[in-house]
């Protein structure tokens, strides 16, 4: 099996402080630690999980110092993972449901018995590193050895949260979004200031909330993209996976709920032709207009397309996402969208510390042309052009931007991506010059890691800052 399917096999090894083989030359200024999160195991006893999102969290750590890379990996010691050691699937995951009673399903609906399989990304909050997923059960871990420290609560009054919240460096606060399912279902927007308590901004009630994976933030507004993939609490009581509790309504619009961050007022709800999105890229204001960039799909078919049965096939059928910009006119309450560049793209990243909430020029992402995730793309959003990096047999993951200290340009830095090399049957960390979009180095692991999702980079000598959209 010398193809992308190697990246969807279960992984059993845990590694501690292994020096990697480096081919090429790392920049002398690159000093810090890359943390990645994603699934590591897809089986429980004799049972195979259903969806890519269901795999049990494997933390990965890559320390860049003195021209070398040191690698560690460790499974997150969650309640969900510990149950698998006895061959038990105790908690419902995104696409896989355990055998459970109606009472257990009722408890899950109202926030109890939720999975803590926090496999989506890593965030730094309240002075500690946390693994997060789309439930309110965050899991803190030791950044030095990846050992699990315990559970943390992720939101105010929400039964589920999104993993992609935003940091506003001017206001010095995180802004997050949760979903509440129950008697009064809807969305919960909240702030988490650096020097204060978590505070609810607004609750927006919806009888059928949408599945929400991310949202957009500007200086004064939060923008929730509410597409017509909806659920109702009663559907979650059925013995079906969480993902299958949502229904796509092709006749309904996708709506942008524009919320004033200062007082929680919903100031606009413009509708557009239906589309689905996982990931927002950036958003910013110009006068009475908002611009929201995201990865759009014509419908929700990307969700079932990420099933393991499809991804483990030789030629998986995976819809391509489109980098699209929506302009929202707050005076007229109308919105319109257009593609920024042609070609499929996903896992978008930007120079987050500089560009988030502001006009920006460059977006980086993963593309699929002839095979699953077979290239990286750098898009100039101002000119609608792009550059492509690809290498035979290499399947890259999300590319995080790490800025050069005292760099003067938005793209002055490097991109870090954990990739699969099918010829070597090993994973490697790719290091690309972000300006020229050319490879600088590879650091090879002794084995194949399953494809991951998201992560963050902590530069040595600096406070951890967000590095992803």
Automatic annotation (TrEMBL):
Pfam families: RPE65 (PF03055). This is Lignostilbene-alpha,beta-dioxygenase. The keyword Metal-binding applies. InterPro entries: Carotenoid_Oase. Belongs to the carotenoid oxygenase family. One of its GO terms (molecular function) is metal ion binding. Keywords: Dioxygenase, Iron, Metal-binding, Oxidoreductase. It comes from Halalkalicoccus jeotgali (strain DSM 18796 / CECT 7217 / JCM 14584 / KCTC 4019 / B3). Coiled coil: none annotated. Its cofactor is Fe(2+). One of its GO terms (biological process) is carotene catabolic process.
């Amino acid at each position: 099996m010398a193809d992308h399917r190697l990246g969807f096999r279960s992984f059993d090894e845990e590694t501690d402080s292994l020096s990697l083989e480096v081919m090429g030359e790392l920049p002398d200024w690159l000093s810090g630690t890359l943390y990645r999160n994603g699934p590591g195991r897809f089986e429980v006893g004799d049972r195979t999980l259903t969806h890519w999102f269901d795999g049990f969290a494997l933390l990965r750590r890559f320390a860049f110092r003195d021209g070398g890379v040191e690698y560690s990996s460790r499974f997150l010691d969650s309640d969900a993972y510990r149950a698998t050691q006895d061959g038990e699937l105790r908690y419902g995951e995104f696409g896989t449901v355990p055998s459970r009673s109606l009472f257990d399903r009722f408890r899950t609906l109202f926030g109890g018995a939720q999975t803590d399989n926090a496999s989506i990304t890593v965030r730094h909050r309240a002075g500690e590193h946390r693994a997060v997923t789309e439930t309110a059960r965050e899991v803190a871990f030791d950044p030095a050895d990846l050992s699990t420290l315990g559970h943390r609560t992720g939101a105010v009054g929400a039964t589920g949260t999104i993993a992609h919240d935003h940091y506003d460096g001017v206001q010095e606060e995180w802004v997050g979004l949760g979903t509440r399912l129950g008697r009064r279902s809807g969305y919960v927007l909240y702030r988490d200031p650096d020097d204060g308590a978590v505070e609810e901004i607004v609750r927006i009630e919806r009888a059928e909330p949408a599945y929400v994976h991310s949202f957009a933030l500007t200086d004064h507004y939060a923008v929730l993209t509410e597409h017509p993939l909806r659920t109702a609490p009663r559907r979650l009581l059925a013995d079906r996976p969480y993902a299958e509790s949502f229904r796509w309504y092709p006749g309904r619009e996708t709506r942008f709920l524009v919320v004033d961050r200062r007082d929680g007022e919903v100031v606009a709800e413009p509708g557009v032709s239906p589309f689905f999105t996982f990931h927002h890229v950036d958003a910013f204001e110009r006068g009475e207009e908002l611009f929201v960039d995201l990865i759009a799909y014509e419908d929700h078919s990307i969700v079932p397309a990420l099933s393991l049965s499809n991804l483990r096939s030789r030629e998986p059928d995976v819809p391509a996402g489109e980098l699209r910009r929506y302009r929202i006119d707050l005076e007229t309450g109308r919105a319109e969208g257009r593609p920024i560049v042609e070609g499929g793209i996903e896992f978008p990243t930007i120079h987050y510390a500089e560009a988030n909430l502001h006009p920006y020029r460059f977006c980086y992402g993963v593309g699929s042309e002839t095979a699953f995730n077979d290239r990286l793309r750098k898009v100039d959003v101002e000119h609608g052009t792009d550059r492509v990096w690809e290498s035979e047999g290499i399947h890259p993951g999300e590319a995080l931007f790490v800025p050069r200290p005292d760099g003067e340009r938005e793209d002055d830095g490097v991109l870090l991506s954990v990739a699969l090399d099918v010829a070597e049957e090993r994973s490697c960390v790719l290091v690309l010059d972000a300006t020229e979009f050319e490879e600088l180095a590879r650091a090879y692991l002794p084995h194949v890691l399953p494809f991951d999702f998201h992560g963050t980079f902590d530069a040595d000598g600096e406070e951890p800052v967000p590095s992803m959209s």
